[in-house]
Amino acid sequence: MNVQGAEGAVAGGFRLGWWTRRRSVVVDVGIALVAVGEALARGFSFAAMTGLPAALVVLPLALASASVVLRRRYPVAVVLVAISILPACPGTTIALVGLYTLATTDAPRRVIAMLATMLGSGTSVVFYLLMDQDQGLRAQEMPVWFPPLVAGIFGVVSAVPPVLLGLYVRARRRLVESLRDRAFGLERELALLAERAEERAVWAREQERRRIAREMHDVVAHRVSLMVVHAAALQAVAVKDPEKAARNASLIGDMGRQALTELRTMLGVLRNGSGATPTAEASSRLAELAAAAGGERGEPAEDGGPVLGEVRALVDQSRAAGMTVDLAVEGEPRGYAAQVESTAYRVIQEALTNVHKHAAGAVARVRVAHREGEVAVLVQNDPPRGGAAGGGGARLPSGGNGLVGMRERVVALGGGFVSGPTDGGGFRVSAVIPDRSVAAAGG
After folding, report:
1. Are 226 and 349 within 8 A, CB to CB?
2. Which superkingdom (predicted)?
């Protein structure tokens, strides 16, 4: 049950004075009628016994007993009224109900004990006097202690049971409220956990989207870039059938550029989370290109991940495309973690791809340094020949995600990444990647 919902139902439903439920009104009015009936019966007996006019006794007792209807609002006043009419109505309904109601409230226990003692003591005194004035009892021989004992029992019975019952109900209500509060607290915590789980799911989806984008870019973009470069070279050097060779080379270049354009489209969908969906033709073409790229010589399998030992084959591919590349390896190769080697390989791969795209004909230098607990890679190129920027005749398109993907990979492993133009007009990409397996073993 929801407390807020219950409060809303009370606020929007029945309310009469201090009553919030119709059943409470019916119960209190019923108790008041019973108390008034008892007061009328005892009032006439008290009037006959004392010789007082019945109206002067019955009407005040009836009004006093009717005050039990206020028990939920003024329980202390109801108990005091019950004490005041003890001489005429000892042990009445108003006294029992008043004490019970007072014990169920948040009234201090000392107040409850004081009023219960007053009511019990008054009841004992009244019953003792009634027994002492009863001629039938006085005619019988009984021990001296018997009347006080009976009167005391009546006093205890009239005060203790309703107080104990009220205290039990009070404790039970507090327990139920405590359990309800705990249930609502758990409900709120579950709601917060659900919100956090949703946030974590969104974050995980975004991370997976970015990871897929990086993988697709690394696996496909480099191979397709080489396709475009080869096509441009074929178009430039064909001599046997220049017209046909130029037409076929132009077709290969167009297919490569279209593939790269479709790749950028899919990367944009994966990175931005837009509602756009790549066409089936584009998806199929990308799958074919990725499969073809993986089947060629020197391309590492994606299942196992590329390793630094395959960097030489990667450099040879760029050399075959007409680029002058110098490779330098410093230090003794070590067995790095798979993610470290894969990230270092991808940085070199993407940097060489950028040289093909933006500095055709430029001389590039690749440096791999094996150090204690880390590996450093550097790819730097000179300005393009003749000062021409861009991809030259190949006109390679660029999506602007390569450097972002490299930085994300390196930073995710706790490494450092720097890229930017050099003083001589070239471009430099540098990354230092710590080996997590070595750090864990050292720790």
Report:
1. no
2. Bacteria
DSSP letter string, 248-273: HHHHHHHHHHHHHHHHHHHHHHHHH-
Domain boundary pick from 110, 125, 141:
141
| Residue 292, helix vs strand vs coil | helix
- pLDDT beyond 80 at 134: no
Single-letter amino acid, residue 371: R
Q: What is the pLDDT of residues 101-112, one digit of tens each?
A: 999 988 898 999
Q: Is the pTM of this model over 0.90?
A: no
The top-scoring range by mean pLDDT among 121-135, 174-188, 198-212, 378-392 is 174-188
H-type helices in 217-334, by residue range? 222-237, 242-272, 280-295, 311-320
> Is 91 part of a structural domain of the chain?
yes
Does residue 173 form part of some domain? no
Distances (CA, A) of 360 to 321, 324, 349, 388, 419: 10, 10, 16, 8, 19
Q: Packing angle between helix 146-216 and helix 109-133, nearest 10 degrees?
A: 160
Q: How many residues does the chain have?
A: 443
pLDDT of residue 19: 83
Do residues 137 and 202 both lie within one domain? no
